[in-house]
Amino acid sequence: NAGVTQTPKFRILKIGQSMTLQCTQDMNHNYMYWYRQDPGMGLKLIYYSVGAGITDKGEVPNGYNVSRSTTEDFPLRLELAAPSQTSVYFCASSRTSGDTDTQYFGPGTRLTVL
Amino acid sequence: AQSVTQPDIHITVSEGASLELRCNYSYGATPYLFWYVQSPGQGLQLLLKYFSGDTLVQGIKGFEAEFKRSQSSFNLRKPSVHWSDAAEYFCAVGEGGNKLVFGAGTILRVKS
């Protein structure tokens, strides 16, 4: 049982490039989340999903897109990378709604945009 | 919208000393409250959570937290800190609509 896995661990992008951050969970959780963490700012919710085929915006969705074609996978797409997207990105999942249930976090992806 | 305030950005305690990390929230009803811990280079892990009932909740690794409605607080405590407790600690409140709101975090340093 690997829990929540994220790839890559580190990535450097040039301004204007695109990339996909991968997230997979093997706990059969319906709810999945993408957060970004900036120093001194805590975690901000980018997008979340309550099940396959259903996604919704969080607090800071601009510049990102998501899809949820399976229960296990919840990739985050960055289009036209900007320096403001330099951050650490965490994926999380929960069995039921994440505002009342335990969220399980992946190890994170550290992204730098130059 | 709900908000969470962690007034202390950094705290340093000696190994073996007691610890209290402060958390204040704004929320109209009885909140769902959480403490998560992030060790260096790792994702977050749940320490404990409060929904209702006994206002003193026990968590993993010897941590406990007390919900005080009158003070809108949910402070985290540990009677004796170990060097392995050095990490960043986040308080969070369930906002409804599947969302958690996190505080900015408190970095705990443990000196030997």
Written overview of the protein:
The complex is a heterodimer of chains A (114) and B (112). Chain A is an all-beta fold and 114 residues long. Chain A has a domain at 1-79: Sandwich (Immunoglobulin-like). In chain A, 0% of the residues lie in helices and 49% in strands. By secondary structure, chain B is mainly beta. In chain B, 0% of the residues lie in helices and 54% in strands. The mean pLDDT of chain B is 93. The interface between A and B is medium-sized, with 25 and 23 residues.
Write the layout of secondary structure elements.
The complex is a heterodimer of chains A (114) and B (112).
Chain A: E1 4-7, E2 10-13, E3 19-25, E4 31-37, E5 43-51, E6 54-57, E7 64-66, E8 76-78, E9 87-94, E10 104-105, E11 109-113
Parallel strand pairs in A: 2-11
Antiparallel strand pairs in A: 1-3, 3-8, 4-5, 4-9, 5-6, 7-8, 9-10, 9-11
Chain B: E1 3-5, E2 10-14, E3 19-21, E4 24-26, E5 33-38, E6 44-50, E7 56-58, E8 64-68, E9 73-78, E10 87-96, E11 99-102, E12 106-111
Parallel strand pairs in B: 2-12
Antiparallel strand pairs in B: 1-4, 3-9, 5-6, 5-10, 7-8, 8-9, 10-11, 10-12
